[in-house]
TrEMBL record:
Residues 1-20 form the signal peptide. GO terms for molecular function: chitin binding. InterPro entries: Chitin-bd_dom, Chitin-bd_dom_sf, Chitin_bind-dev_reg. This is GM22242. The lineage of its organism: Eukaryota, Metazoa, Ecdysozoa, Arthropoda, Hexapoda. It holds the Pfam family CBM_14. It comes from the Eukaryota. Keywords: Chitin-binding, Disulfide bond, Glycoprotein, Repeat, Signal. The gene is Dsec\GM22242. GO terms for cellular component: extracellular region. PANTHER family: CHITIN BINDING PERITROPHIN-A (PTHR23301), CHITIN-BINDING TYPE-2 DOMAIN-CONTAINING PROTEIN-RELATED (PTHR23301:SF106). It comes from Drosophila sechellia (Fruit fly). Residues 31-88, 91-140, 155-218, 228-287, 288-352 form the Chitin-binding type-2 domain.
Amino acid sequence: MTGKLLLATILCLMGGQALGDAILEGNYNVTAVCTAVRVGTQLGSIESCQTYYVCQSTGPVQSSCQSGFSYDYKRGSCYPSSEVDCFWGVENPCAGKNNTWVPNTAVCGGYFYCLEGKSAGSGNCPMNQKFDTTTKACVYGSCSNTQSTDGVVLGSLCDVVPPGQYFGDTESCSIWHYCESTSTGLVLQSGKCSTNEQTAYSVLANQCTYESASVCSRVTKVPLIGGAVSCSSNGAKTGDSKVCGTYYVCTNGQNVATYCPSGYYYDVDSENCVTRQSATPVEGCNRCQYATTMFVNAVDSDNCSTYYYCNSQGQATLNTCPADTFFDESRQGCKSDNDLSTYVPLNGACKGASVDGGDNESTTEGTV
Ligand SMILES: *[C@@H]1O[C@H](CO)[C@@H](O)[C@H](O)[C@H]1NC(C)=O
Ligand SMILES: *[C@@H]1O[C@H](CO)[C@@H](O)[C@H](O)[C@H]1NC(C)=O
Ligand SMILES: *[C@@H]1O[C@H](CO)[C@@H](O)[C@H](O)[C@H]1NC(C)=O
Ligand SMILES: *[C@@H]1O[C@H](CO)[C@@H](O)[C@H](O)[C@H]1NC(C)=O
């Protein structure tokens, strides 16, 4: 119970698209991993099973399988989705499965138990273990502890880098890795170049060589996964943009993920954990977390008319009430604006909302 849980939801991608920006998928820096593998290597995506990246000398280029196909990073190609064990961004990971376990890709070490195509329960592997998709069991190994603010969590490089191929690191020029196929799944093997003076691992030559600026240009000191988010104001708190019950405390220059107790959300006004119903969490975070009903208010300080449908995996789909109504979570439906003023003080998600709209700023809709 003391294990740190990473609770996150898989929602939209927000990656920087501008030329020159690094491609980030949560804690997975695709651009950095591309500098550590041979040119031409294909990497998996953790935001969609259809997406993959081709590492070119200029950086990763995004590519996509045709509809109905998923990318299998272990075989390096697209295959019919039913033949690929991929769960990234999949709305119902239990679809077509009975009496078996599948990973919960939003949580480090998390899994679902599937019965007749539906999730019949979820759980977490014990400390220092992670869920292995191939053996459908918890195996020893750690997953990255760093909280991702983008909603997806890469636990191991061996979940995206093809097995059986050496690659370098961005923290030290001498470190090499490869993903070994074993009976308990893929295991990351790592080592250091240390023979004679040949202390650098050359990705291009795929061997240990002498250090030089070009051989070591990938070394940025930023880790391949789990680069911690830096911060400047010690003690400052920030709510997670996707997970309402998670916030970060700036500690010695790094944001450390902190979790509210079950049933509590991080409240932006008091900067503390507050019971789910009274808390005003970060706008856009997923209020399906800890919800006991199928429909929940979205954080809406304007007119309280937006709400989510929560599926059995706790994933949220945004909806809006018709004109002159607001969403009433206790009554599970849209109600006349006449009752809005009594609803707002008891429901933190709608704090500041009024019939004419709570704030006079023009807001753009459509993004969650
Ligand atoms: C991602 O990797 C690139 C290339 O190594 C680096 O320039 C960038 O700072 C990294 N971004 C983050 C957020 O770690
Ligand atoms: C699903 O698995 C359960 C448990 O093994 C079994 O009782 C049930 O008949 C199975 N359902 C189908 C549709 O195969
Ligand atoms: C709520 O406010 C938004 C933005 O001002 C507006 O577009 C929408 O029509 C309003 N909805 C209702 C139900 O009043
Ligand atoms: C919104 O209202 C506040 C005061 O209620 C006012 O100071 C501010 O200028 C207004 N902003 C806009 C964009 O109208």
